[in-house]
Write a structure and sequence with these properties.
3-stranded antiparallel beta sheet; alpha+beta; 4-stranded antiparallel beta sheet; 21 strands; flat; Transmembrane protein
């Protein structure tokens, strides 16, 4: 947690006086008043106090809400309540529910190799492709060997081919940041970035319309708030443009309303997201 706070502080220093929020944390429930408490999916209002749920799955109050898929495979309905549960692949009996890989033996299990799957369950995420009536390992190509007409396909599990700004077939990462795509104008736009001054750049507040002037991404975990000033969308220097209805939600639960929109003193991890990330690492 300390290391994360240091990184977040560095981001704030670089950005300056703009308002940024960390999308992986939220206000401690004990700080929230009634309005914000009801907005929060992590808290509930009880005896004139905002309290944390005794377990994070308790936010789902009916059996129809407490299903594996709707709770990111973190919760289970047991004895008329929704409780935390760390699922294993073999607990699932149908391909539609299976969060792992559904194989030819009609089992939900960890990945066994491309040949173990049919057409409907051939996992592209593991570099598999269904062709010639079977699921098999994808044939990767060397982008530099391709012509402009054949410049498509993948060079590896996480890289693909595209025509670059020099009109050559080149490889790019499927997980590229905007700055990684300076030589791929077309891909730059496809990745939700903008191509300007011969560079692939992140979208900034000034690029947004007045109707969509809310926030822009700084990185995968940080957002910068935007505000309308003089009929333009600009970087927010404060939270004065937010009100009792928008303060908590617009700041991803980092701020609270106490007559004005102020940052919470204590921010805690959004635990459902943390558990889901752990699940992906362990099982997928």
């Amino acid at each position: 947690m300390i290391q994360k706070q240091v990184i977040y502080l560095l981001v704030l220093i670089i950005i300056g006086n703009t308002i940024t929020v960390d999308t992986t944390v939220h206000c401690d429930c004990s700080e929230l008043r009634s309005q914000d408490c009801q907005f929060s999916k992590y808290c509930y209002w009880n005896d004139n106090y905002c309290q944390s749920y005794p377990n994070k799955c308790a936010i789902f109050t009916t059996q129809s809400q407490c299903t594996p898929s709707l709770t990111n495979y973190l919760c289970k309905w047991d004895d008329n309540s929704c409780v935390s549960h760390l699922y294993k692949c073999e607990e699932f009996s149908s391909s539609s529910d299976c969060p792992c890989y559904w194989n030819l033996d009609n089992e939900c299990a960890e990945f066994k190799g491309c040949s173990s799957y049919d057409e409907n369950n051939c996992p592209a995420s593991q570099g598999c492709v269904y062709k010639i009536s079977e699921c098999q390992a994808e044939d990767y190509i060397d982008c530099s060997d391709q012509t402009l007409a054949t410049c498509s396909g993948k060079q590896g599990m996480f890289s693909a081919c595209a025509v670059n700004n020099d009109n050559e077939c080149d490889s790019y990462s499927l997980f590229s940041e905007c700055s990684d795509l300076n030589n791929f104008k077309t891909k730059c736009v496809e990745f939700g970035c903008k191509f300007e001054n011969n560079e692939c750049q992140k979208i900034v507040c000034e690029d947004l319309s007045i109707e969509n002037c809310s926030s822009v991404n700084v990185d995968t975990e940080t957002k910068m708030l935007c505000a309308v000033q003089q009929q333009k969308c600009v970087e927010a220097q404060n939270t004065n443009h937010l009100n009792i209805d928008s303060c908590y939600m617009s700041t991803n639960g980092n701020y609270k309303w106490i007559g004005s929109c102020v940052q919470c003193e204590s921010l805690v991890y959004s635990i459902l997201l943390t558990y889901f990330s752990l699940f992906l690492v362990v099982y997928l």
